[in-house]
Structures are given as C-alpha cells and as structure tokens.
Amino acid sequence: MKTVLVTGASGFIGQILCKRLSEHGFRIKAVYRPSFKNIPDYVIPVLIDSIDNDTQWKQNLEDVSIVIHAAARVQMMKDTSLNPLEEYRKINYYGTARLAEEALKNGVELFIHLSTAKVNGEGKNEPYTENDPETPQDPYGVSKLEAEKKLAEISNGTSMRVVNARFPIVYGPGVKANFYSLIKLVSRTLPLPLQGIPNRRSFLYVENLCHAL
Fold first, then answer.
1. Model-level pTM?
2. Parallel, antiparallel, or unpaired: how do β-strands 161-165 and 64-69 relate?
3. Any catalytic annotation for residue 140?
4. pLDDT digits (tens, 9 = 90+) for 60-92
C-alpha cells in the first residue's frame, strides 16, 4: 500500500480527492490547518499552520511515495494586497519549492503539482496545448508558472518525477468563489446577456479531475 501526502485536503478538490484515493486503497496523509474540524476517519491528519518557505515537512514525509500538492493561494477577483504577486508566491512558489525539496530528500517518487491552465495565457481562440508558449497574464498564473519551473529545477537529474496538472475552472458539488456566484445568479432565472459576452471558458468536473489524478 503506497502512502500519498495530499496538501489542501480541506479544499473543494482536496476533500473529494482524498475520498477517491481512499477508495483505491491508498494510505493518505492529509494536510489540514489546525482549525479544521471535519477530518474524515480514512486519512492520517497532518496539521500545519501555513505552507511557505519555513514549513517543516520532514517527519510528515516519512514513508510517503507520492505527493499531491493541491494547496494554493487561488485566484481572487478583488485582491486588495499591496503586492499581489508576492502574496501568491508565498505559498504557490516558495511553499511549493520547500515541499518539493523536502520530498526529494525523503525519497518521494512522484510529485504532482496542481497548476492551472492560466500559465498558458488568456484570449487565444483555439484551445491551448502543452506545446504552446507560457504567457500568464495575472499574478496567480505567474506564480504557478514560476513554481513549475522551480520544480523542474529541483527534480532535474533525480529519481523524483514531477507532473504539473494544468486544468481550467473546476466545478462540482461544494464549489465556491466565482463559479458559485455564477450558479447563484443563474438560479434566479433572470435573463442574462451571456451570448453577447466574448469570454468563453473550459470547465472540468471535479470527479473527472480526481479520477485523472
């Protein structure tokens, strides 16, 4: 039985991912903030205040073969911080790099980083592919691309395999943030001028994402 460390286990994706991993026979170490109360009985809880450049991982990575790094500072429509990029970097870049370095030292075989399609950019008429040049347009996308490059640097020439899962907007039961706001708006049955808005997006169902992972 392989042990998987899942960060962001209390999040929209993390909760479903842990449940599916359990159903497939994995032993799960799930990372939560100490304040989180609804920890399921099929995981080994790992309580960590914050994920950044100073997080201590060594003891929590013992016997771990796979890391699925789902924790992140996600995109916000109205970011009031004075330096948004640095705020995103704290967890998305520095926190990711710290975890990957410790994972490598502890013999982790596979590091899966939940990235974003936003590293590719915005506004292209055709679908993006992994062969397109990365041109992120906002601090969130920039921080995720920086993390991808750092992971490549850390794992280069080592036995630890890195996978960057770039996905679009994820929806499903429990979704929050912008997608939830859109659901509430649509549920009011008011006529919306969506056809006239040139802002097409791809969506991914959370169960499909977790199945792929």
1. 0.91
2. unpaired
3. yes
4. 999 999 999 999 998 665 666 778 899 999 999
